[in-house]
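G., the chain you wanted modeled:
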Amino acid sequence: MSSHDRPWHKTAVFYEVAVHSFLDSDADGFGDIAGLTSKLDYLQWLGITAIWMLPILPSPMQDGGYDVSDFEGVRPDYGTLDDVLTLLDEAHSRGIAVVTDFVVNHTSDQHAWFLEARDRASPKHDWYVWTDDTSLYCDARVIFVDTHDSNWSWDDVAGQYYWHRFFDHQPDLNYDNPLVREAMTSAIRFWLDLGFDGLRLDAVPYLFEEEGTNCENLPATHEYLKSLRTMVDREFPNAVILAEANQWPVDLLPYFGDGDECHMAFHFPVMPRLFLALATGDATPIIDTIEATPEIPQGAQWAVFLRNHDELTLEMVTDDERAVLYEAYAPEPEMRKNIGIRRRLAPLLGGDRRKIEMLNAVLLSLPGTPVIYYGDEIGMGDDNTLPDRDGVRTPMQWDSGPTAGWSDADPASFYLPVITDGPYGSATVNVAAQKEDATSLLHVMRSLIAHRPPEFGTAALERIDTGDHSVLGYTRGRFAIVANFAQDRRSVPVESIEQIAGPASSDGKTVALPPFGWAWLITRPEES
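Predicted structure as tokens:
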């Protein structure tokens, strides 16, 4: 285990990494753990204190590794368990925690458990959810509406329908079976025992089914999570478990329990409202959403983000708000996926540095632990010609070379292609060039992280009445944050004694904000 002291997760800055797209160290066209390890110095230089890795377990890769075929192994393309141990040792020696994805809800249809479960006489049959009647659990919504119109799919071998909340190649495990719960707890123990500082539990709301419900957030799920937390606290007291649940905060509150379930959960609703505020020039929905967020137990923490490896979900906005967001950020059909937008941060904002920097400044100062998506620190683009969400998971652009310094393999063998053309191509958008340019987005991001005070991870938020609906304002302890979501200059009354970051200017009583300008301010001396 690492030497991190709890609650390290409350003041961390996370960096989300798709390992298959970060660095290919062995020239096979697929990023690997050794490649990530070789770039730890870069992440330390950037100021990152925690890495969140997308799945590295064996998988057919029909869903980016979220279709797991073995819960206690490493996909050979990524490397070996020894490579994982080296990564953990090297990261910890730099003060960087490492968290990885663990898919709790389902397996791949290529997992040995499911292959055996297709035999109705096998004991493994009851490890999954089967039926002859597809009207069962009819109140459960279909999540991937672009792909499926039912949560049931037929299996010719079993002669029954099996349950899947996601793709049909991802059958759901039957958590009503105690053997399933034991097996999954054992697998979680396996990864924490290796030295991971935490696990992000993917798709956690859907573990159990119950007729007459929407099959989400059921009491049995929380009973299981409490048992899991008990094990983690007893055996791995510095580790954290993070709930991935695309839910409203009031529905997520039970995932913290009384401080006896998950340590962290993602705050989904605040993210689309940041983009909505930019589209409308009205920052009110941001602060309203934050103030409506219920209090969570001491030691618990929200995780906040701008973009990640999935679509920018619009499930938690109104129909009218969704129409505004689609028109502003996804005018072309290929930019949309499910109920969301499959674009990276920079192209979403038209490459406008002012908007990109302001949203990151707000992100880093919001209540919770910020998560930066790999490549967003340099303003990488997306490729909407790729299927599903792969367009936002393309290889990291390290330099201006023909393969962006990502791999020495033949580009024809790449798991995903490098973006080489257009305004976000690797010839102009890459780490090497931006490290040499002190005015680059990369240096701005590094400065933001360096100047981020610990209070941003722990202090309560209080609204500042800016008197202007376009200007977001709040305090975090002795710090004030103001951000202008309008495309013209604004001035707001905020008393301060020092400005620590931002393109605004302050005379101690009033802050003058350029279009999409922002400021981090100190409002009072530090208490001795």
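Residues 193 and 367 are 30 Å apart (CA to CA).

Shout if anything looks off.
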